[in-house]
Design a protein that fits this description.
Elements lengths: L27 E11 L3 E6 L4 H10 L8 E3 L22 E2 L2 H10 L4 E5 L2
Parallel strand pairs: 3-4
Antiparallel strand pairs: 1-2, 1-5, 2-3
Length: 119
């Protein structure tokens, strides 16, 4: 393990993500597979959700698994919020960190780095 972060999660944080629009953050092992330097949040790195298990579950249940899960900093222009953001589940299923933490993550990990998301 390189680092462990306290984060903000989706607006419905109890339980693993199962479908598009459930506002949950995936739980389990994934890969950080690509990044966006300029987004509406301060930097963003994509999480490889849905993985094969997630896709199989969704197919059996007849539901779309969703996607577009990112680790990202705070919304542009709102870095002043700092670590207070962790007091709220505000990310619609992504993983929110401070801008300073996002800088650290950005520098520490390469694309292809494994990540474990635990509640």
């Amino acid at each position: 393990m390189l680092r462990d972060y306290d984060v903000a999660l989706g607006k419905n944080p109890k339980g693993a993500k199962r479908r598009n629009g459930d506002l949950r953050t995936p739980e389990g092992r994934y890969v950080l597979d690509w990044r966006i330097e300029e987004s509406r949040f301060y930097r963003a790195i994509h999480v490889s959700y849905p993985n094969e298990q997630d896709k199989e579950f969704a197919a059996r249940a007849g539901i779309p698994p969703g996607g577009g899960v990112m680790i990202h900093g705070l919304p542009e222009g709102e870095s002043w919020v700092g670590d207070v953001h962790r007091e709220f589940d505000w990310t619609n299923g992504c993983i929110g960190v401070t801008d300073d933490e996002m800088d650290e993550i950005w520098e520490l990990v390469d694309d292809g780095t494994p990540i474990e998301i635990r509640p």
